[in-house]
Design a protein that fits this description.
binds zinc ion; Rossmann fold; five-stranded parallel beta sheet; 8 helices; single chain; 16% strand; alpha/beta; 217 residues
Length: 217
């Protein structure tokens, strides 16, 4: 009993239970879902349901609070938003989909310069936590990003696809050979990144690839 109490206290120190909303900071431990209060959650539009045979899905629509939250994670380094909120919502979304069980989870990579600037890869942070929750193997280095391309929000979709094709490459394929892969990213726009990364994974031995993102722009 003593040991159990010590263990519980140690866990509380390592992962303190959330008492304030990760997005607005309001203390409201009663209504928190994955660290997000009911008021914030109300403003976060869910992405429409996907076709049954679709291999891609998103949790939210990329607007308002969701956009702010992604910015806080990516540009302010608020990692709890990725680890607690987004990883939790990704797990819920996955449970609601009729997808088969995944063998491995792979994040969409960032260029090493951005990794140095930011200190972490947001999709990697979420993918790692999700893998731990689902008890699925996390494969962080299947893909790499050899080109440091600029954000692609304003470009035409065909230009975006061409840019994406030269922006991603396979890195270490051992972990994905013969596996059903779940690819994780923060935002999807035209889906060109997903398309290129899925093709690379399939060409290099993955049997099936599904893609789940936090938000659809
Ligand atoms: Zn809130």
């Amino acid at each position: 009993m003593v040991f159990r109490n010590i263990a519980r206290k140690a866990t509380d120190v390592l992962y303190p239970p959330e008492i304030a909303c990760l997005l607005c900071g309001r203390e409201d431990s009663e209504t928190l879902t994955h660290g997000v209060c009911a008021d914030c959650l109300k403003t976060m539009a869910l992405s429409p349901m996907h076709e049954a045979d679709s291999h891609t899905a998103s949790v939210f629509v990329y607007e308002c609070k969701v956009r702010d939250a992604i910015h806080k994670l990516k540009f302010n380094g608020e990692k709890s938003i990725g680890k607690k909120a987004f990883a939790g919502f990704l797990a819920d979304k996955l449970q609601s989909l009729a997808w088969p069980a995944m063998d491995v989870i792979v994040p969409v990579p960032v260029h090493w310069l951005r990794l140095i600037n930011r200190g972490f890869n947001p999709p990697g942070l979420m993918a790692k936590t999700l893998a731990r929750t689902l008890q699925v193997r996390y494969v962080p280095h299947a893909l790499r990003r050899p080109r440091h391309t600029r954000p692609m929000f304003t470009k035409e979709s065909n230009v975006r696809l061409q840019t994406a094709q030269t922006s991603y490459a396979i890195y270490r394929s051992q972990g994905i050979v013969g596996k059903r892969v779940l690819l994780i990213d923060d935002i999807t726009t035209t889906g060109s990144t997903g398309q290129v990364c899925c093709d690379l994974l399939l060409k290099n031995g993955a049997t099936e690839v599904y893609m789940l993102t936090v938000a659809k722009a």
